[in-house]
Design brief:
CATH class of the largest domain: Mainly Alpha
Radius of gyration: 29 Å
Structural class: alpha+beta
Number of strands: 29
Bound molecules: zinc ion
Largest sheet: 9 strands, antiparallel
CATH architecture of the largest domain: Alpha/alpha barrel
Distance between the termini: 47 Å
């Protein structure tokens, strides 16, 4: 994996080095030395006298990678200092970048998701339980969990920004869910199991727990209950959750108890939250009607960890679900990426409550494997589509799977480790995944979503309105709803500034409090202004730790205009110990040029390629800004990118521009050898890049993130054809597909080849449709060849049409071309209609779809 290397501190993970190299850090850096950086200085709000660039700390401006040499035999020791989150009510975000997004997510996304869950029957399942019915479950078995996750996320948004209508909607759902749960004496709630396989609860009696998701659904109930209580003080859901948790704690264990673990991790951290509610609010033992014991709840979380890899009395869920061996024997991060990140994040959460558990060492060992060898430059994880899992070390294909849920899971994992070990390296990775892989998960409009967010994708891989497994939007809302709580954190020793987001907060330091007011140009600029005031009379010096981002190669820091020559650096933070006076102001100025990033040579997919990053933002290149010839482009070895105005159709971003070369089509009459061949077959162009998070917001378009630096890695450019130069239109095209697919010269390997762009008339079925082209100039044609898109082998919605024929426009009227042959509809090949030579400029395919079926086209050729 690739990381922009800064020189912020000495306690980084070690770099991979060649066997013969010396171990001096400078040599390692030279070994990975990359392009010089282009400086991009934006007018600083700081007066010039305040500027002091800490060159001594950042002597080399090179970009390279952080890779672990190997995992240590023993895990890291857990810190004595633990951090605590700042409650959401004590932080308010007011930020040019984040506030408009959070408004859209709260007003559009949350309601859009609830509407679609209602439409798909997720809440109807609870009504069926309340009515005592059986059968008729709608949606996936984990639908209960997903709507409970929605409730958690929505409640966090409401803690920051109350909204009576949304609160009423959630209160209604909570009332319904509590009623459904109370149909069972133990408040067991997993509607699929209850409606469809009631005798297979927890996967017993031949049930399939991995499919049923009973424990996962329970975990989602626990975390929703905690967050709902924190938001409203209402104990309805809490009481239900505790009743179920108590039942599970009494029932589960090694035989003769019932051996059950979550086949999908999540309940581990959820139980920690449930126990925290009880610890924070001892008065609940008097007001709730049930047994309240925080230790019992936490012990259940630990039991779920300890039972991993111990299969007495149950089936193994294998490496897929981190269940092949006991937890302490797990050496590398394997299996389903969402499960893995939630499990090890859960371990960190338990370790914070119980330092003696030893779980921090396991969680940190897996984290170093993940961030050192198995994570993308966007912070995304889960390279392999099959089983949605981690690949081997350095197996990071650019079309890798990268589910949004995996990115969110990684985000929680980074945060939980940081709470136990206050090292900025965890927040560096949180920032990476937040600004790139997570943020790409929802469209700018707030109502279109991504399941997968690979670095390279064809135009056919686009956002969807909804999904049969809509797991990603709830996970996205859980993390973004809690975002205000991640900007700062607090401890007995110091207040921490982790993220650069315009905000106001009250943060505890020991027994005192600091009022913080942050203004910033982040993420497009590196200026930060922090007003720091103590709450009340404070004569003691208090420590304020401000993160220096890992990507940062140089920065200035000042207090009240006085530059700090050599700030104390502690584990990635500039540590400011001071007796703060009202109105004190800390200013930071991070250099933020566009940086050229290279990957470790062991990442074969990125050999000979570079990507670009500015501050925390990774950039990608979309065809819509660079024509569909992007895949024929490459950069010169010395290419540097500069910031630029955003392209049209996209708001609130800054783009980059970089000079490049584009491979020209080889003409048929090209001689075999010649002078200056490279010069003849390339042209100079300029590529426009946008932040990765903003991809796929302007209709179907392909993208690349790692650009080739050699012509050898580009695709072979094809010569323009009559079809490729024409302008194509259609009676209809599905929003996720593109008409541009029919003449993009990307050839299919089969009629159900879903790896390339396609055009379809979906969701029209059985209708009469057309697809037409206006040629660049009148041309004499003899045939039209069509490669049909057909999904019969994958049992989906498109088939070859019933019939098709070719028309041309004569004097403004469409007429069938005379003497044409019948239109064939064979699979896996071009289907040709021939006719006598005819000069045409406007040509139309008239297509009659089969009854109840739609149709589509992968490519068309005109001769
Ligand atoms: Zn998902």
């Amino acid at each position: 994996m690739a990381i922009v290397r800064g020189h912020r501190r000495h306690d980084r993970v070690p770099l991979l080095r060649p066997k013969s190299a010396s171990h001096r850090p400078d040599d390692q850096r030279r070994w990975r030395f990359r392009h010089a950086l282009v400086m991009c200085r934006i007018a600083s709000p700081l007066p010039p006298t305040n500027r002091f660039l800490i060159r001594s700390m950042n002597p080399v401006r090179s970009i390279t990678l952080a890779i672990l040499v190997s995992l240590p035999l023993f895990g890291s020791a857990q810190d004595a200092t633990t951090l605590h989150p700042v409650p959401l009510e004590q932080v308010s975000i007011n930020d040019a970048f984040w506030s408009p997004k959070r408004t859209i997510w709260q007003n559009v996304t949350i309601n859009d998701c609830f509407d679609k869950f209602e439409r798909d029957g997720a809440f109807e399942n609870f009504d069926r339980l309340i009515a005592g019915q059986t059968g008729g479950h709608r949606g996936a078995p984990w639908f209960d969990g997903l709507v409970l996750e929605m409730i958690r996320g929505a409640n966090d948004f409401l803690r920051s920004n109350p909204d009576a209508a949304l609160q009423a909607r959630i209160d209604g759902y909570v009332t319904q869910i509590c009623k459904a749960a109370k149909q069972d004496p133990n408040c067991f709630l997993s509607s699929y199991t209850q409606l469809e396989v009631p005798d297979q609860r927890w996967g017993r009696n031949g049930g399939k727990l991995r499919f049923q998701h009973d424990v996962y659904n329970a975990g989602c109930l626990f975390e929703a209950a905690a967050h709902y209580y924190w938001a409203t003080g209402n104990t309805n859901l809490l009481e239900v959750a505790l009743r179920l948790a108590n039942h599970m704690a009494e029932t589960f264990g090694l035989p003769p108890k019932v051996n059950v673990i979550p086949a999908h991790a999540l309940p581990e951290e959820a139980l920690v939250k449930l126990s925290q509610v009880l610890t924070q609010h001892p008065e609940l033992s008097k007001t709730l009607s049930i047994d309240v014991d925080a230790n019992k709840i936490l012990d259940l979380a630990k039991l779920f960890v300890e039972l991993r890899g111990k299969h007495d009395g149950r089936e193994s869920f294998g490496q897929y679900a981190q269940d092949d061996v006991p937890i302490r024997d797990q050496k590398t991060i394997e299996g389903h990426a969402v499960r893995a990140t939630l499990l090890y994040g859960g371990l960190a959460a338990i370790a914070k409550e119980d330092p003696q558990s030893g779980y921090f060492a396991v969680a940190d060992r897996m984290w170093r494997n993940m961030t050192g060898q198995r994570m993308y430059v966007t912070g995304g994880v889960g390279a392999i589509a099959d089983d949605e899992k981690f690949g081997a070390d350095y197996e990071l294909p650019n079309d890798g799977y990268l589910e949004t849920c995996g990115a969110v899971g990684a985000g929680f994992y980074h945060l939980n480790l940081h709470q136990v070990s206050p090292d900025a390296k965890y927040i560096d990775q949180f920032e990476r995944v937040l600004y790139n892989a997570v943020l790409s998960g929802v469209s700018q409009s707030g109502d279109r979503y991504l399941y997968e967010s690979p670095l390279t994708a064809p135009a056919s891989k686009q956002r969807w309105d909804w999904h049969a497994c809509p797991c990603c939007p709830p996970m996205f809302l859980k993390l973004t709803g809690a975002l205000p709580g991640y900007v700062y954190c607090q401890s007995d020793d110091a207040a921490y500034v982790n993220l650069f987001i315009g905000s106001e907060a009250t943060v505890r330091v020991g027994e005192h409090q600091l009022q913080l007011r942050q203004q910033t140009t982040y993420p497009f600029g590196g200026q930060v202004r922090l007003q720091v005031s103590p709450v009340g009379e404070v004569s003691d010096p208090l420590k304020l730790n401000v993160r220096i981002p890992e990507w940062c190669q140089g920065f200035k820091i000042a207090i009240n205009g006085n530059a700090i020559d050599q700030p104390t650096l502690e584990r990635g933070y500039a540590s400011l110990l001071r007796t703060w006076k009202p109105g004190d102001e800390v200013t930071l100025d991070f250099e933020m040029p566009v940086q050229t990033v290279s990957a470790n040579p062991q990442v074969k997919a990125d050999l000979g390629r570079v990507s670009f990053q500015k501050g925390p933002l990774v950039y990608c290149f979309e065809e819509i800004d660079n024509t569909d010839r992007l895949r024929f482009s490459y950069l010169s070895e010395t290419a540097t990118a500069v910031p630029s105005e955003p392209p049209s159709g996209i708001v609130g971003i800054e783009s980059i521009r970089v000079k490049a070369k584009q491979r020209l089509p080889v003409k048929d009459d090209e001689s075999l050898y010649g002078q200056d061949v490279i010069g003849d077959i390339t042209e100079d162009i300029e590529l426009v890049g946008i932040p990765f998070f903003a991809h796929s917001n302007r209709g179907p378009t392909g993208r690349q993130t790692w650009m080739p630096t050699t012509i050898l890695l580009t695709e072979e450019a094809k010569a323009e054809t009559i079809a490729s130069q024409g302008t194509w239109t259609a009676s209809h095209c599905w929003t996720g597909d593109t008409i541009a697919a029919v003449n993009d010269q990307v050839m299919a390997e089969a009629s159900d080849d879903d790896s390339i762009p396609r055009f379809t008339w979906w969701d029209h079925r059985g209708t009469s449709e057309w697809l037409q082209v206006e040629l660049a100039k009148p041309s004499e044609l003899r045939s039209v060849e069509v490669y049909w898109w057909d999904e019969r082998r994958v049992n989906r919605h498109c088939r070859v049409p019933a019939t098709w024929r070719v028309l041309h426009q004569v004097d403004g009227t469409w007429k069938p071309i005379a003497g044409q042959s019948e239109g064939p509809v064979e699979l896996d090949q071009f289907n040709k209609i021939s006719f006598p030579p005819t000069t045409v400029q406007k040509l139309r395919l008239e297509v009659q779809l089969q009854p109840n079926w739609s149709a589509g086209i992968l490519e068309i050729q005109l001769h």
